[in-house]
């Protein structure tokens, strides 16, 4: 039995004679084990193995989920590429707009006939 199993019932074991020695090691007697509900010398029945049909179904589901995950990863990569391209387009349009607005705020050029007439 595992240490964890014993530690879950340590209170019962100590009531029936289990103790810690000077080195900090637990000493558990067979009587303490029996009193806590354990059966020393008589191992419990092994876990029933899963049927192969259930394991096969689990493997098929796992394969399907892996394929679906790969498909989602591909879609995410494509979406990120599209988003990056759109960001570049927006930056280019913003630069063009800044250039257009900068030229419209400058003083308008005087026409050639205005140069002949006094202002």
How many beta-strand runs?
2
* Structural class designation: mainly alpha
Helices and strands, in order, run as: HHEEHHH
The description of the largest β-sheet is:
2 strands, antiparallel
Helix count, per DSSP?
5
* End-to-end CA span: 106 Å
Low-pLDDT stretches are none
Gross geometry:
elongated
Strand line-up in the sheet with most strands? 1-2
Helix content: 55-70%
Strand content: under 5%
Return the average pLDDT rounded to an integer: 83
- The radius of gyration is 40 Å
Which quaternary structure do these chains form?
A: single chain
Overall description:
Among the domains are: 3-35, no CATH class; 59-101. Helices cover 65% and strands 3% of the residues. It contains 5 helices and 2 strands; from the N terminus they run H-H-E-E-H-H-H. The protein has a two-stranded antiparallel ribbon. The radius of gyration is 40 Å and the shape is elongated.
Write the layout of secondary structure elements.
Layout: H1 3-8, H2 10-15, E1 19-20, E2 26-27, H3 30-35, H4 52-105, H5 112-116
Q: Short description, anyone?
A:
The chain is built from 5 helices and 2 strands, in the order ααββααα. The chain has helices spanning 3-8, 10-15, 30-35, 52-105, 112-116; strands spanning 19-20, 26-27.
List keywords for this structure.
119 residues; mainly alpha; two-stranded antiparallel sheet; 5 helices; 2 strands; elongated
């Amino acid at each position: 039995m595992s240490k964890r199993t014993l530690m879950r019932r340590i209170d019962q074991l100590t009531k029936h004679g289990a103790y810690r020695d000077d080195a900090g090691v637990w000493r558990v007697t067979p009587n303490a084990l029996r009193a806590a509900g354990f059966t020393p010398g008589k191992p419990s029945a092994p876990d029933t193995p899963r049927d192969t049909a259930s394991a096969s179904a689990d493997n098929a589901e796992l394969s399907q989920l892996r394929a679906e995950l790969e498909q989602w990863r591909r879609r995410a990569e494509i979406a990120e590429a599209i988003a990056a391209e759109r960001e570049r387009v927006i930056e280019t349009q913003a630069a063009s707009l800044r250039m257009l607005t900068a030229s419209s705020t400058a003083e308008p050029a005087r026409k050639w006939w205005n140069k002949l007439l006094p202002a």
